[in-house]
Design goal:
Structural class: alpha+beta
CATH class of one domain: Mainly Beta
CATH architecture of one domain: Sandwich
Strand content: 35-45%
Number of helices: 4
Distance between the termini: 36 Å
Number of strands: 54
CATH superfamily of one domain: Immunoglobulins
Shape: flat
Length: about 675
């Protein structure tokens, strides 16, 4: 199992890992190598045993200095080191006995009759014993030199391969050597630091990506998950990813939550995401091509970000047009999205694909005069190789179309002379059959409020207007909302007009009473009500257009107790995709008005639906395999047809036996779905 760790802001080695050769470690391991070689030689071992003992000793020392997480290995290393020390003592005793070197002895306590201690008889070493001692010293010196050379070569080679001096298994489960190129890769941050403000925890968002050996994206699983609350202190986040063959990669990093004072203001600004323009890539094979691209993202607070794109850069793109969707999320959870298209074509092949023309459906408009009406329309065209084209239409846009039905014919031609034509109709109706339905204007009930000064009171009200064709209209009222109304009764006239000139006028009354005296301080009540609104609401869409959202808003006044606020859009209304601001106002008995607002965000939370074939069986030889083509489609409730991506792709060579094909699809809002099926190569040679 190999784990690769990489920062999303730059590859900076952690402080505990020092690249290069560690002099302290080299000295300790060299000493252990010399000791191991001397012990083996002292026991009478041959050259092979001496070399093996000298080579193992520095690695045992490395494990002792940098113990890994496995308790068994630590205990084994300690026992081996104790065995070496014990062997060294035995070797010294054997050498002393062999050369008969006298050891230190206690002075004799016995004495002769004169009281002087008895003399110790002197012993001389014969020439043969001296030659034996000198030969032993030469052997020990030669063994120490060979052991030191072994330590230098083995440690230098190991550190060159790894790029770090016996780093403990803090960031990888691999000791020595390079990571296998066949396993998946998990990319995690170097570390995340957040402040909890006045709370005891902070909601931390981080970014982790994973890919298999072929560069295809994988879905990493992290515990704790991104976006969950992290308590004060350090929390270890464990992440893992598994590819289609069952190979697994793991990585971890530390999230540090520190206490702080007043938290910074919330960040609602999206990052700036830059993606390439649509482009075309040539290939000489029918299986597609690996295409690389570059996307950039930067946030005002977090600086440079790494965007997530699907399919990822360097993936295998099949022939045809593929949509690449990129997202970038900052630490506050704000997400920016952008997309572009990559078209893969075979180099040298003739282009026989005509352009695609996009035009409106039937257009129906009323005549503005006896001669008809001026009509403007929008028509565009794109080609698989040439990109955007300018179509030619007759009659052209922006001219006067006569009463009746007119067919507009449009054509577009690419650089290979492939031509496409398409048409639509414009219907201009007579004036008498035009829209004669006036708009509907909704005004409030009569408003009665107390004056806030001797001149009157500022009154705010809400008026809306809708039309059967133009939908929502903006009414005009006199006096306008938010103006000063004098003491007494004032009639407010509101009118709305649609595109066909139909107009509706409605009115209501606003009564401003003199300033009432407060029973306590005999003064006017100028304390506004307090409106309690919910936190920003985020909800998934229930249809392709949006969702119906209900909410609860309340208002209270210190004199009038509970009040009934008025909000727009109202609770239970249908909210479309995106963010809508709901504004609420409340008025007490004295006419004092307060307002508050919150947002409702409707997002697309439904992933695409992928349709894959049943298990496919194809004849395949043991050596050559079989070329298998298959059809996979994907649809989204909002985006319609979505292009799926499969691995292995259609048209690949499948070996003998079962192979799992994994397909994924992503809609424009980043929802991803995956599905698999099996291709079985049967037969044989």
């Amino acid at each position: 199992m190999i784990t690769t760790k990489q920062s999303v802001t730059g590859a900076t080695p952690p402080a505990a890992i020092k690249p290069g050769l560690d002099a302290r470690m080299l000295a300790l391991a060299s000493l252990a190598s010399v000791l191991g070689g001397v012990v083996a030689s002292a026991f009478g071992g041959g050259p092979l045993a001496t070399l093996i003992c000298a080579a193992i000793s520095p690695w045992i020392t490395a494990f002792l200095v940098h113990p890994g997480p496995h308790r068994v290995r630590r205990v084994t290393a300690v026992l081996l080191f104790a065995l070496l020390v014990s062997g060294c003592r035995k070797a010294v005793a054997a050498v002393r006995t062999g050369v008969r070197i006298p050891g230190r002895t206690a002075r004799r306590r016995r004495s002769d009759a004169s009281g002087e201690p008895a003399a110790v008889p002197a012993r001389t070493v014969n020439p043969g014993e001296a030659r034996l001692a000198r030969a032993w010293l030469r052997q020990v010196t030669l063994t120490a030199a060979i052991s030191f050379a072994i330590a230098i070569v083995s440690l230098t080679t190991a550190e060159t391969i790894r790029g770090e001096a016996f780093a403990a298994e803090r960031d990888t489960t691999f000791f020595g050597g390079a990571p296998s190129p066949s396993g998946p890769t998990v990319l995690v941050p170097d570390g995340v630091v957040a402040r909890a403000g006045d709370d005891t925890a902070a909601r931390v968002t981080y970014q982790v990506t994973a890919a298999d050996a072929a560069g295809n994206p994988l879905v990493p699983v992290c515990t704790p998950r991104s976006g969950t609350p992290f308590t004060l202190g350090q929390t270890n986040v464990e992440c893992s990813a598994t590819d289609a063959t069952g190979r697994q990669a793991q990585a971890h990093f530390v999230v540090t939550v520190r206490p702080g004072g007043t938290p910074p203001p919330p960040d609602h600004r999206q990052p700036a995401l830059t993606v390439p323009e649509d482009f075309t890539h040539d290939t000489s094979t029918a299986g597609g091509a690996r295409v690389t691209y570059t996307a950039h993202a930067r946030d005002a607070r977090d600086g440079t970000l790494t965007p997530d794109c699907l399919p990822i850069s360097g993936s295998s793109f099949a022939l045809g047009r593929t949509r690449v969707t990129c997202t970038a999320t900052d630490a506050a959870g704000n997400t920016a999205r952008a997309s572009f298209s990559i078209t893969v074509i075979r180099a040298g092949d003739d282009d026989h694909t005509p352009p695609v023309i996009t035009m409106p459906e039937t257009v129906e408009l009323p005549a503005t005069s006896s001669g008809g009406t001026n009509v403007t329309y929008d028509v565009s065209a794109t080609d698989n190789r040439d990109g955007a084209l300018k179509p030619s239409c007759q009659p052209p846009s922006g001219i006067v179309f006569k009463i009746g039905t007119t067919t507009v014919n449009c054509s577009a031609q690419d650089a290979s002379d492939n031509k496409a034509t398409k048409s639509f109709t414009i219907i201009v109706t007579r004036a008498q059959s035009a829209d004669r339905t006036p708009p509907q204007v909704d005004v409030p009930n009569p408003i009665k409020t107390a004056a806030t000064s001797k001149d009157g009171a500022t009154v705010t009200y809400h008026v809306s207007a809708t039309d059967n064709r133009d939908r929502e209209l903006k009414p005009s009222c006199d006096p306008a909302s938010g103006t000063l109304f004098k003491i007494g009764t004032t009639t407010v006239n509101c009118s709305a007009q649609d595109a066909a000139g139909n107009q509706t006028t409605k009115s209501f009354k606003v009564t401003v009473t003199p300033i009432p005296a407060s029973p306590r301080n005999k003064g006017p009540d100028r304390t506004p009500p307090v409106i309690a609104v919910p936190d920003p609401i985020r909800t998934a869409a229930t249809s392709k257009d949006g969702a119906t959202v209900t909410y609860d808003v309340s208002a209270t006044d210190k004199r009038n107790r509970p009040l009934r606020p008025v909000c727009g859009p109202r609770s239970g209304s249908f909210f479309r995709f995106g963010t809508t601001t709901v504004k609420c106002i409340a008025r007490d008995a004295t006419g004092t008005i307060a307002s508050n607002s919150f947002t409702v965000t409707v997002f697309d939370g439904t992933p695409p639906v992928i349709t894959v074939p049943d298990t496919i069986e194809e004849y395949a030889s043991f050596q050559g395999g079989a070329t298998v083509n298959y059809d996979v489609s994907a649809t989204d409730d909002r985006d319609g047809d979505v292009t799926p991506h499969c691995n292995p792709p259609s048209g690949s060579t499948f070996p003998y036996g079962p192979t799992t094909v994994r397909c994924s699809a992503q809609d424009s809002t980043g929802n991803t779905a995956t599905k698999t099926f099996t291709v079985i190569g049967v037969g044989g040679d």
